[in-house]
Amino acid sequence: MAYLFYSISFTFLLLSTVLYITRTRWLPHILPFPEQIYSHLPSSFAADIESGFSSAAFDLQSSNVATGDSRAGLDDRAKKEVRRIMRTRRVGFDEARRLYTEQRFARNNIGPDGTPRDPKFVSFGS
User: What pTM was estimated for this model as a whole?
Assistant: First the structure.
């Protein structure tokens, strides 16, 4: 009887540990959190900067806010996707933006280096 108890306890402990370690992969599928409740997307370049959608390589302050750009800010769909990548893969803004761009390239049949994957594409240069 003790063997059965220890086997069940060990199996439960092992399963719990594996589920805890991999929770970032399976938890969003089990408990979908509505993003509009937890994260309000900003609607101006200044709000984009405050929300973390700016970096040294992607500087919104000097190129948009300082020049008085009156546009509505970054694309909402792209911001939502970049924020999702940042949250699920636990990466910074620049890495999430790179991953988002590569995903968009792949959807449009473009290689990660920016060259088209079209078999009819002809390039005269290096």
Answer: 0.51
